[in-house]
Amino acid sequence: MNHNFCVIMAGGAGTRFWPMSTSAYPKQFIDFFGTGKSLLQMTLDRFRPLIPIEHFFIVTSERYYQVVKTQLPELKDEQILLEPFRRNTAPCIAYANGRIRQIDPDANIVVTPSDHLIYNEQSFVEHISSALACTENNAWLLTLGIQPTRPETGYGYIQYDEKNSYLPDPRISKVKLFTEKPQLELAKHFLESGDFLWNAGIFVWKAAVIRQAFERYLPEIHNLFLSIEEDLGTEREKASIERIYTECTSISIDYGVMEKAENVNVLASDFGWTDLGTWSSLHEQIRLHEQTKLDEEGNALLTQANNTFLYKSSNNIIAVPKEKVAVVEGLDGYIVAVTDEVVLICRKEEEQNIRQFVTDVQIVKGDIFV
Amino acid sequence: MNHNFCVIMAGGAGTRFWPMSTSAYPKQFIDFFGTGKSLLQMTLDRFRPLIPIEHFFIVTSERYYQVVKTQLPELKDEQILLEPFRRNTAPCIAYANGRIRQIDPDANIVVTPSDHLIYNEQSFVEHISSALACTENNAWLLTLGIQPTRPETGYGYIQYDEKNSYLPDPRISKVKLFTEKPQLELAKHFLESGDFLWNAGIFVWKAAVIRQAFERYLPEIHNLFLSIEEDLGTEREKASIERIYTECTSISIDYGVMEKAENVNVLASDFGWTDLGTWSSLHEQIRLHEQTKLDEEGNALLTQANNTFLYKSSNNIIAVPKEKVAVVEGLDGYIVAVTDEVVLICRKEEEQNIRQFVTDVQIVKGDIFV
């Protein structure tokens, strides 16, 4: 029997990729590269060599039920866990863990975000496979750390201890410290010191081990989910989840468990990872991604539909639905994102203001465009 | 009985305002100023104080029949004359003249384009009224000339003779010369000399007088329309018009008649006129138009829907349908035009290239976007 399970957290609703990403259709559901697959679909595909299809669980918001069903038609309804509202990652993981324990008390689980990119999928599978082998035999909370290549200020970092010879894989170390996103100076120091990894937010553990950790470090959340344990998988599930979510603290698994627990180890990885966080990072990813490329003037086109006509334009990132046409003349270094309802034109170096633009649109026009 | 008639030529299909203006929906049908009226509707309204509604005739292409019906529901079908293809202004005027002579052999007619702007409508009505009074009693081909205010190279010019005391209105002169669009140096010379006016393309004459001119200067066209005179207003009209249009030369009334005839006079006018020819001129018109204005940074917004959000942007002209939203950051001096199918972003000083962009889109995507 295969005890491997995968929990994909797909409830995010950010506006950093607005207007392509909206609260009604956030980035994990978007096919950014025009390859026919959304980030969510790419995430699931990546784990398929290791995990049987019936062992996947998607945790998402009620409002995304239909889009998940459409994008992952191979999943049964009971594999899509719906949160009534967002409560950060800890309750999300507790919920999925409860459901999986019912099915297989010996479950060995990978928990992953749904909006990351991996360049070397073969290496990724090998790392996850090693990680699952470790947690199969060790009562660890294992997290994946990425060998940093630049002093990135947009990621959290994990400091690891000296390698311990008792550990079964030379890439695994005990975790000394989790840190929040650092300032640039600190990030440079982390990079130089050589004992920091990027926190990829991918976790591997047995259901019983993370349950114990909840019991110890997040007892309130643990008890709430314990109180409805028998309702999971029954017709009472929806009502019970709604009830306890209203009482549940909003807290991340990093802050609530990983930073406190003692059995936390990290697997240093180098499979080429990125958190697709900004338009500029997307531009960079398109340059790097093996299936995509920039044009000769450094423009990144997000569709392969021959529908973007560029003149005297360079270093732009341009997203136009395949059924529309864009003609762009005389732009350098801009984001041009077009949807049925919205056109955004913004210099790349000003993209941190998009959040404010979205708020302004919301104030004047209501939620319809956001 | 009111003998005044008006022929509105509304068959143009230019792409200079693409993508707002397309061959399926050209500029005369567009509400550029968000006032609820298209240029065609504004044109008809302008003549209403002088001309009974049943004396208007719109000459347009067959493909625009439905949009004319929709925009001018007060007109009867027989007031919309459909050309099977474009043959410039002379055949268009011959066709309308034939139909109007059937109704009223003493008709006194204003012929006008449908895509011009007039600032002082009261003054305009006064000028047209004077013009009609003149042609009522004189066998003239009268054209309206606009007092030039700048050395414009985009208009044709009319040179007038010394004022002749036998003429009934001191603003009327005999025409000495029609000229094509001049180079800048020549335009400056025209402006300084003081005896040149802009050619507005608005003509006033009796049906019998222009008919005589056709007979003399464009006998082939005259004979073609003579041959089907009895078919006009009958069920044979459509077939007959189609037949003679295939044989008809494509020629302008200016070149075919006005430049050759001897009874041509010009009424010097100053009612504030512009041929809305380019996005940049539209920008300028919005600055001047009494119902519209630029924002504090010199941006012209073509809708009044509060749907354009501008940041660090100036001197742009921005057209966004009212049901959509545009967010524009960091643009100076651009055209941003959005339709359901197309987004155009182009520096104003490069707008002469739009024609080429349209051709490029047409080559790759076919006619659907053009």
- List segments of chain A where confidence is low: pLDDT < 50 over at least 5 consecutive residues: none
Separation, N- and C-terminal Cα atoms of chain A: 45 Å
Shape by Cα distribution of chain A: globular
Q: Which secondary-structure class do the elements of chain A indicate?
A: alpha/beta
> How helical, in percent, are the residues of chain A?
25-40%
Largest interface: A-B, 34 and 34 residues
Helix and strand element order of chain A: EHEHEHEEHEEEHEHHHHEEHEEEEEEH
Overall pLDDT of chain A:
93
Approximately what portion of the residues of chain A adopt beta-strand conformation? 15-25%
Largest sheet of chain A: 5 strands, mixed, barrel
Q: Write down the oligomeric state.
A: homodimer
Q: Specify the number of helices of chain A.
A: 11
Radius of gyration of chain A: 21 Å
Main-sheet strand order of chain A equals: 6-9-7-8-10
Number of strands of chain A: 17
Describe it.
2 copies of one chain form a homodimer. Chain A has 370 residues and is α/β, with parallel strands linked by helices. Helices cover 32% and strands 24% of the residues of chain A. The first copy, chain A, contains 11 helices and 17 strands. Chain A has helices spanning 39-47, 65-71, 89-103, 121-137, 184-193, 207-217, 219-227, 237-247, 253-258, 279-288, 354-365, and strands at residues 4-9, 56-61, 80-83, 108-113, 116-118, 141-146, 157-160, 172-179, 196-206, 264-269, 273-275, 300-301, 308-311, 317-319, 325-329, 334-338, 342-347. In chain A, the strands form 4 sheets. Chain A has a 5-stranded mixed β-barrel with strand order 6-9-7-8-10. Chain A has a 4-stranded mixed β-sheet with strand order 12-14-16-17, covered by helices on one side. In chain A, helix 6 (207-217) packs across helix 7. The radius of gyration of chain A is 21 Å and the shape is globular. At the A-B interface, strand 15, strand 16, strand 17 and helix 11 of A face strand 15, strand 16, strand 17 and helix 11 of B. Strand 15 of chain A pairs parallel with strand 17 (342-347) of chain B.
